[in-house]
Write a structure and sequence with these properties.
Blueprint (H helix, E strand, L loop, with lengths): L1 H12 L7 H8 L13 H17 L6 E4 L6 H12 L3 E5 L6 H9 L6 E5 L6 H13 L1 E6 L6 E6 L4 E6 L7 H4 L4 E4 L5 H15 L5 H9 L5 H17 L7 H10 L9 H13 L7 H8 L3 H14 L3 E4 L2 E4 L1 H7 L13
Parallel strand pairs: 1-6, 1-7, 2-3, 3-6
Antiparallel strand pairs: 4-5, 8-9
Helix pairs in contact: 5-6, 8-9, 8-10, 9-11, 10-11, 12-13, 13-14
Length: 348
Amino acid sequence: MTELVTERFAAESLVRSGADDVERAAEAALRPRSLDEFVGQRVVRDQLSLVLQAARARGRTPDHVLLSGPPGLGKTTLAMIIAAELGTSLRVTSGPAIQHAGDLAAVLSSLEEGEVLFIDEIHRLARPAEELLYVAMEDFRVDVVVGKGAGASAIPLALPPFTVVGATTRAGLLPAPLRDRFGFTGHLDFYASDELERVLSRSAGLLDVPLEHAAAAEIASRSRGTPRIANRLLRRVRDWAEVRGDGTMSLAAARAALEVYEVDERGLDRLDRSVLQALCTRFGGGPVGLTTLAVAVGEEPETVETVAEPFLVREGLVGRTPRGRVALPAAWAHLGLDAPRDQDTLFA
C-alpha cells in the first residue's frame, strides 16, 4: 500500500513547478555556471550581462537585482551566476525564514564587501524586516536597537557594499518602497520548445546518457515551458531507459516513460485531467465554483487554484469567469468529447 501511495504521489507531482530539498540537490549538478551557458531568457541575460560588466569595469558592486517570474525558470540559477560572474560568494536565505528584523540584521551584519545576498520569495518578508532592508539596500546601514521601552536607543552599524538579488513569483505583492530600491528588474518568461531541447541536450550530456533529438523534442513538448520540469522528466526517462530499455533515451523510451508517470502529450498530469473531466462530465462545462470543483476532484481548493489552474488557463483549456470556472472548447477536444452547442453562452 505504501508503494502504491508513493508511486501515485510521484505521478501527481512530476510536473509541478516547485522543488523540494532533494530535487534542488539533483538540480545543482545540472545548473549552468555562467551567463554564456545559460539557455533562454535572451533579453534578461543580455541586460544582466551589461549590468555586471559595467560594475566590474568600475570596480564597484552592481545595483540590486530583482528577478520575477513563475517557479522553475532559473531565478536561483541566475543568482548563483551573478555571484560567480562577480567572483564573490553567495549568501542564500528566503523570505519565510526571516520573520523578525533581528534575523535579517544578523545576516546583513555578517556580509563581507562585494558579497551577493540572495533572498528567495522576497515578497514573503515580514514587514519589520522589509523596513530594515530598505535602509540596508540604500544606505548600507542597519540600526541596531539597544534596550527596551523609553530607554531604547538605535546604534547605526555601517555595512560594506553588497548586492541583494531578490526572487519572487508574485512581484505584485512587493511593496513599492522595496521594489524601487532594485536598480535592475528582470522578468523571466516560459521557454519555447527549441530552448527546452537545448536545455535537455546539455543536461543529458552532463548525465552522460545518450539522448536522441526526437526524444528531446517529445520531452520538451510536455514540460510546460519550464526547465525544472524538463530536467525532472529527463531523469525519469533516463530511469526507464536504464531499467526497461537499452540505456538510450529514444522517442519510444520517452513516450513509454511519460506514460508510466501519467504525463500526457500536452503536459497534463492526473490532477489536471481530473479537473477537466469534472468540468466537462459532471458540470457540463461549467461555470462551477472553485470549492465545488475541488471537492469533485478530491483536492483542497488552494491546490486546484495554485497547482492545476494556472497551466490550464494558460493553455486555453479552462476559463475563469465571475460565475466560476468553465471548460473551453480545447478542453473538450483534449478529452475527446463533444462540446455542447451552447458553450459560447457560458461567458455571457
